[in-house]
Amino acid sequence: MILNQFSLSGKTAVITGCSQGIGNAIAAAMAEAGADVVGVDIVPQPCTKKKVEETGRCYLELEADLVDCTAFDDVVDKTIERFGHLDILVNNAGITRRNMAVDFSEEAWDAVIAINQKAVFFNAQKAARQFIKQKTPGKIINIASVNAFEGGVKVIAYTAAKAAVRMITMAMSNEWASLGINVNAIAPGFTVTQLTEPMRGEEDRVKEMMTRIPIGRWAKPDDMAGAAVFLASPASSYISGATIVVDGGYLGR
Ligand SMILES: NC(=O)c1ccc[n+]([C@@H]2O[C@H](COP(=O)([O-])OP(=O)(O)OC[C@H]3O[C@@H](n4cnc5c(N)ncnc54)[C@H](O)[C@@H]3O)[C@@H](O)[C@H]2O)c1
What we know:
Elements: E1 12-16, H1 21-32, E2 36-41, H2 46-54, E3 59-63, H3 71-83, E4 88-91, H4 106-134, E5 138-143, H5 156-176, E6 181-188, H6 197-200, H7 203-210, H8 225-232, E7 243-246
Parallel strand pairs: 1-2, 1-4, 2-3, 4-5, 5-6, 6-7
Helix pairs in contact: 1-2, 1-8, 4-5
The structure holds nicotinamide-adenine-dinucleotide (NAD).
């Protein structure tokens, strides 16, 4: 029964940065597929909590600044306390800072790298330790970007971080796949969320990008949900170290 292999029934998924945008869409989709959700964000997540609970699944809302890598210890502890096990981690929290490379500040560089790159590894490390302790399979899904494949403009630190996410996804897979832990990534294309608001204000850039999106529109957060549920489910059990591009064809141009 192939459709059964897409079920997340009985699983617990931790999703970072899920108050809005792509994380919100992934949380709702994973709940629809049967998972209980632990939402972690620097801000409260009333909309995500409501969407998850409407599916009949449970939602544990945690507020944490994941720039502090020790914060994820508490996330794992509270997940186990409430649900007894952790099965899926979606490393989604992220920020960007836009500026030309000649003007890019050290402060902006450090801020972007801290959450988009460093936290991704240390959250994954802590989830992997928990999977190993539980002696159960685990799924780690890192949210990269098309900037893991192309340099972009005005996003030097973001590109550096997302390229690193793609590569550490492979490196973690190399060490953990034999332990039953699948580590994969999703590389979203241009998606209508708060993160892309400043870029969407740059008319010339938007026009130029639209000519490079064969599907002819920007992504909606929901466009990322199918790939996330797939990578979290047994249907993807032989996929490890991969980055699935969900970009409307953008990178093909
Ligand atoms: N929107 C796009 O076009 C696009 C494209 C490629 C990749 N992405 C990636 O998708 C992910 C989600 O982005 P989005 O577009 O939904 O943006 P968003 O700004 O709507 O959501 C990001 C979330 O991360 C949270 N967050 C930020 N810093 C945090 C911290 N220190 N601790 C905890 N939570 C924190 C925010 O509060 C927010 O809820 C990011 O990793 C982003 O880089 C987005």
